[in-house]
Amino acid sequence: MVDQPGVGANSDAAHDVLRRVFGYDSFRGLQADIVGQVVSGGDALVLMPTGGGKSLCYQIPSLVRPGVGVVISPLIALMQDQVDALNALGVRAGFLNSTQYPDERRTVEAQFVAGELDLLYLAPERLRIDSTLQLLDKGKVAVFAIDEAHCVSQWGHDFRPDYLALSVLHERWPDVPRIALTATATEATRKEIAERLDLTGAEHYVASFDRPNIQYRIEPKNKPDQQLLNFIRTEYPGEAGIVYCLTRNSVERTAEFLSRNGVEAVPYHAGLDARTRATNQARFLREDGLVVVATIAFGMGIDKPDVRFVAHLDLPKSVEGYYQETGRAGRDGLPSTAWMVYGLNDVVQQRKLIDNSEGDAAHRRQLQLHLDAMLALCETVQCRRTQLLAYFGQSGEPCGNCDTCLNPPESWDGTVAAQKVLSAVWRLKHERGQSFGSLHITDILIGKSNPKVLQHNHNELKVFGVGNDLRDTEWRGVIRQLLAQGLLAVHGEYGVLTLTEASREVLRSGRTVMLRREPERVKPAKAPRAKGSRLAAADLSPADADLFERLRAWRASVAKEQGVPAYVVFHDATLREIAARKPADLAQLGAISGIGENKRAKYGEGVLEVVTAGGGGAAENGPASAGRATAAQPAVAPAADHEPPPDWDFEPPPDDGY
Ligand code: ADP
Ligand code: ZN
């Protein structure tokens, strides 16, 4: 924090809370500045990536300023967990939402009025109710925090009409500082938030959107289920992860496939009934090492810190979506992977979705631009991270921790190959008046005399067999890249290929087409260790790793007993540090990051017992595998969960086309 005259005392108070309550030594990145601004009564608009540490930015001002911090959050189903996590730190927190019984609500209201709370979580719709506004008048509000502030944006898929009414905060309580926070990175959304929430005069804080501990990888899609299974088995067995699929059907199929093959997985999509959704979400949060397979309906506000991987089996619609979804990995700063498989079919499917989408031409054009940026990220031979950050207007050096940095793909001059594909499409159209999908075009190029080829006499075409220098998978790669580069178009129910304006340049004027060579086999790329960073804790000796597992087992049983997610007790990063440093007493334990006074008092003895038991004498703690917490019932009645973003089921394009 910049030490301006007059804020020194505030700064001391903020640091004191950081150390005592949260057990952290220092603020991270922009946190100190933001906390300083809000503590001294100013407004702030904060754009920080998931895992960047947004919560402290409003929690600490709530504790330092007189009064109660009021947090507006759309995530009703997660409020109980948020409150539990704060209570574990010794912070007095409560929530008001529609899932409570009237007398529970009255208790919280009375606590608020009496100033017996540090933080109060509210669903945005509460602020439309007069009685809530009157309640807030009766107590003292320290700060208003508007979490997930991008929900005010009518263009995003998280739009909540109730957010539009939040301008009442400023009108009714002009002297209470406001802080709005989001992980949405685009300039346009930031402007919209500032305008709609009346925060144009606020200080804006835009953090770096880089997530150095996430390794980005995009591989060619062959047998997606099997590829996913291999990825999980070899790199993250027994770890928590999220797998995103496009359709509800593929969600269910994939969850079943993983479970059948020994990876415990549950489905989540908007077509499941509310109770199943809430149960599966609660299991994911509470258990160690569960995989959730989901549509994009899952994820906002999931603050589980130890999600080790996010996998995409289908192409996201935009870079922004990809970034949000992958950002759910590794909030704890430990090495994590964003893994995706991608193939020709994805391009065809997405183009088809756009063709069939509702809305005018301008809207479709917008969707097309989003998709093009996503395809460019998939096809790049440059550093993925640099390209991702460039999309959000930030620059960076090649990262050394993405697949293209670790195994630089070659590019090759694919002009002749492109001409072969394009002339096959052209000849079919002009000589026969026909259009076909990529599968048939490939068969013609490699000269396959299959029944369909013979039936149409396509073996008589001049292009028949001109492409036997490449294998069919390679031709699919060529066609996919031509589609991604706009040198070929795809249409209709059967995914037929047609030429574009730009195709002409390749066919007639010899425009050069550079293509990416598909790696033969993608080596699992291990994350390099970031020097001197928090990631260092990930390197444990076998003995320390054993202790870490015993600590995890201890944590699982404590969490189960108390009915809270394991990470509410301690984060993995904290347990790893304990395993590495082996504190001998409470004082040494308190020096470990993430152990504040309350947690030390509450769990310190238990942790020290596990540490000193060491040397194989810890039978009472059970083997690591026995520590799995069982499914807990969701703490909040699921029916009132927010309605997730729209979700759909559609028929995948018929096989014929590709
Ligand atoms: P966000 O809400 O931005 O996604 P969180 O507030 O959940 O991020 O913080 C992400 C993780 O980083 C949490 O595990 C949190 O405890 C930890 N963290 C936040 N600030 C600090 C800090 N100053 N020092 C150490 N850890 C921190
Ligand atoms: Zn890179």
Describe the structure.
The protein has 658 residues and is an alpha/beta fold. The protein folds into four domains: 8-206, 3-Layer(aba) Sandwich (Rossmann fold), CATH 3.40.50; 214-342 and 380-408, 3-Layer(aba) Sandwich (Rossmann fold); 411-522, Arc Repressor Mutant, subunit A; 535-626, DNA polymerase, domain 1 (Orthogonal Bundle), CATH 1.10.150.80. Helices cover 44% and strands 11% of the residues. It contains 27 helices and 17 strands. Strands 3-4-2-5-6-1-7 form a seven-stranded parallel beta sheet, sandwiched between helices. α12 (274-286) links the parallel β10 and β11. α1 (8-22) packs across α3 and α14 (344-356) runs parallel beside α21 (472-484). The longest helix has 21 residues, at 542-562. The model is unreliable at 1-6, 527-537 and 616-658 (pLDDT under 50). It binds adenosine-5'-diphosphate and zinc ion. Adenosine-5'-diphosphate binds next to α3. Adenosine-5'-diphosphate is lined by residues 24, 27-28, 31, 48, 50-56, 303, 305, 331-332, 571, 593.
CATH architecture annotation name of the largest domain: 3-Layer(aba) Sandwich
Helix content: 40-55%
Q: Could you give a short account of the major beta sheet?
A: 7 strands, parallel
Task: Please tally the helical runs, counting DSSP H or I stretches of 4 or more residues.
Answer: 27
Per DSSP, what share of the residues sits in E-state strands of 2 or more residues? Answer: 5-15%
The CATH superfamily of the largest domain turns out to be: P-loop containing nucleotide triphosphate hydrolases
CATH class of the largest domain: Alpha Beta
Number of strands: 17
Domain unit count: 4
Tertiary shape? globular
Q: In oligomeric terms, what are we looking at?
A: single chain
